[in-house]
Amino acid sequence: MGSEQRMLKLAINAAKAAGAILKEGLGAIHQIRYKPGEYNLVTEIDTRSERTIIDMIRAEYPDHTFLAEESGLTEAQPEFRWIIDPLDGTVNYAHGLPVFCVSIALEIRGEIALGVIYHPILDELFTAEKGDGAFLNGNPISVSHESDFTKTLLVTGFPYNSRINPHHTIDHFINFVKAGRPIRRLGSAALDLAYLACGRMDAFWEVSLNAWDVAAGSLLLTEAGGKITDLSGNPWTVYTEALLASNGHVHEDMLRVLTIAEKS
User: Measuring CA to CA, how many Å separate 49 from each of 10, 105, 185, 214, 253?
Assistant: First the structure.
């Protein structure tokens, strides 16, 4: 087994172990605290999940470093950096809404090399290695082939500070509603990207994102044939705050709507 395959297997095992913690704890939260920002909460399950993932990876690769939602960055410029969201969809989770996941990605020398997203309630495991395609429970997946913008299903999310309308987030939503497009708001950017990668959605945009929200999902999407830019169509990285992701066929249509707010 090659080194990257070994690391992918480890990421899968860690995601499933963390997913078991999330599944067991659903509906049984005892501690909720609020991070800076409106309604930006964390539970004891987030912390347990993250600790489990990091401990499993460190046992195999003690020299690797981490960028994780709850514990932050362990080293500024490592060769191998694991980017972890132990519970994406915490607000859903805290309310007993079963729409959440574990997201784990590995960045090697500044490039996302593998990604895993696991939805424990549905037992859906999304995996990708750079250059090797994207998979759902071991079966190849691809983005939708929809090219007619009037037939698309869109998905988005709102940041915790949406009341101040960062990056025109409210205006963009209104403009897509005015364009007559059906829009979903699932509450998990990682699942948004995974569902886009397997063709359940056609396009996704969101602002004020962090690397752990999108690192694994962005690789899934591009390996499934999708496209990602910033909201102006410029090159994007996992450290860019705002993104537009699509099946590629309707990307320009999405950009046309997104520019309306910029011009107003």
Answer: 15, 15, 24, 18, 39
